[in-house]
From TrEMBL:
Protein species of origin: Torulaspora delbrueckii
Residue numbers of the full-length protein present here: 157 to 481 of 495
Lineage, opening ranks: Eukaryota, Fungi, Dikarya, Ascomycota, Saccharomycotina
The protein, known as: mitogen-activated protein kinase kinase
Enzyme Commission number(s) from the entry: 2.7.12.2
Keywords: ATP-binding, Kinase, Nucleotide-binding, Phosphoprotein, Serine/threonine-protein kinase, Transferase
GO biological process, one term: signal transduction involved in filamentous growth
Ligand binding (ATP): 37
A single cellular component GO annotation: mating projection tip
Lineage top rank: taxon: Eukaryota
Length: 325
């Protein structure tokens, strides 16, 4: 049962990334909300596009899993502008990068209120478990390696589910279409940058970096890079500098289990780095195993704050418009 593109009503833009734009849409026949990713393509590379759509369609054979965003279909439309459309499950709390930026604004508004950080041990443990469990499923069952674990590809919903998306698609194809390298690839492991064989352990490295970013609010290894030179610098830093670590001191108080967990992810030598299955058995995961209800509660709170943030930003925008007049 494939979704027909003409049965979709667009409800608004969710966000955009390197390759395209993600839109919230309603599938009218069964009143279901879906996420629609639109990737514009040049007129001239139909071969590449057809191969990409074929590759994407393989995703449809991945059976539903609690930690994988469901895939509904990939399309190539040639009416008007050419674009690839990918339909997938809509996750109503959005991605971790979005939640992180909303958290930043939330803290700014409540400066005098001392609050628990959003990304505490419980939350990081639950997110890590979900990512590892999803990665393990993709690899054990389909031999798919994700290759692009980063905060914007880990999505959450208010039912307390954490799911990974945007996996398996060969980056070479995507890049040949999007033609952008700048601003990407920062979560790549040292062995991948050096061109060695890429295994599932590359995703473990990315998970480690992602955790450090979530708890500190900053990308480790020296900030975002928006110029081509910046990217080359960063790639060199990943290979040459010591492994990134969770900060010690500075008001942070991470548990022994969490520090050890991150240390095992962020090992530069791939052979020394823990595997997905080893990490699934780590004490940091076990410690919070029975805390599903608490995590679900956290997701609901995030949903509430996202709504509040949207409202405040809308009001700010309107005020700014009025002041201009
Ligand atoms: P990137 O992952 O590089 O940011 P994408 O085009 O994959 O770029 O996604 C853009 C944004 O859309 C993401 O950052 C995320 O916040 C949001 N998004 C993507 N897929 C979904 C989805 N299935 N449900 C809800 N939000 C999504
Ligand atoms: Mg993405």
């Amino acid at each position: 049962s494939s979704i027909q593109l003409q049965d979709l009503v667009q409800l608004g833009k969710i966000g955009s990334g390197n390759s395209g734009t993600v839109i919230k849409a309603l599938h009218v026949p069964d009143s279901k909300i879906v996420a629609k990713k639109v990737i514009p393509v040049e007129n001239n590379n139909h071969l590449v596009v057809n191969q990409l759509v074929r590759e994407l369609t393989i995703m449809k054979s991945v059976h539903p899993h609690e930690n994988i965003v469901s895939f509904y279909g990939a399309y190539y439309t040639q009416s008007g502008s050419n674009e690839i459309v990918i339909l997938m499950e809509y996750m109503n709390c959005g991605s971790l990068d979005k939640i992180l930026s909303v958290y930043g604004r939330y803290c700014q508004r409540r400066q005098n209120l001392r609050e628990e950080p959003w990304f505490n041990g419980l939350v990081i443990s639950k997110i890590s478990y979900a990512v590892l469990n999803g990665l393990s499923y993709l690899y054990e069952k389909y031999k798919i390696i994700h290759r692009d674990i980063k905060p914007s590809n880990v999505l959450i919903n208010s039912r307390g589910q954490v799911k990974i998306c945007d996996f398996g698609v060969s980056k070479k194809l995507i890049n040949s279409i999007a033609d952008t390298f700048v601003g990407t690839s920062t979560y790549m492991s040292p062995e991948r940058i050096q061109g060695n064989v890429y295994s599932t352990k590359g995703d473990v490295w990315s998970l480690g970096l992602m955790i450090i970013e979530l708890v500190t609010g900053e990308f480790p290894l020296g900030g975002r890079n928006d110029t081509a030179n910046g990217i080359l610098d960063l790639l060199q830093r990943i290979v040459n500098e010591p492994s990134p670590r969770l900060p010690s001191g500075g008001g942070y108080n991470f548990s022994r289990e969490m520090i050890d967990f991150v240390n095992r992810c962020c090992v530069k030598d791939e052979t020394e780095r823990s595997s997905i299955n080893e990490l699934l058995c780590h004490d940091f995961i076990g410690k919070y195993r029975t805390k599903d209800k608490e995590f679900r509660h956290w997701c609901k709170k995030v949903k509430f704050c996202l709504k509040e943030d949207k409202q405040i930003r809308r009001e700010d925008n309107e005020r700014a418009k009025l002041e201009k007049k």
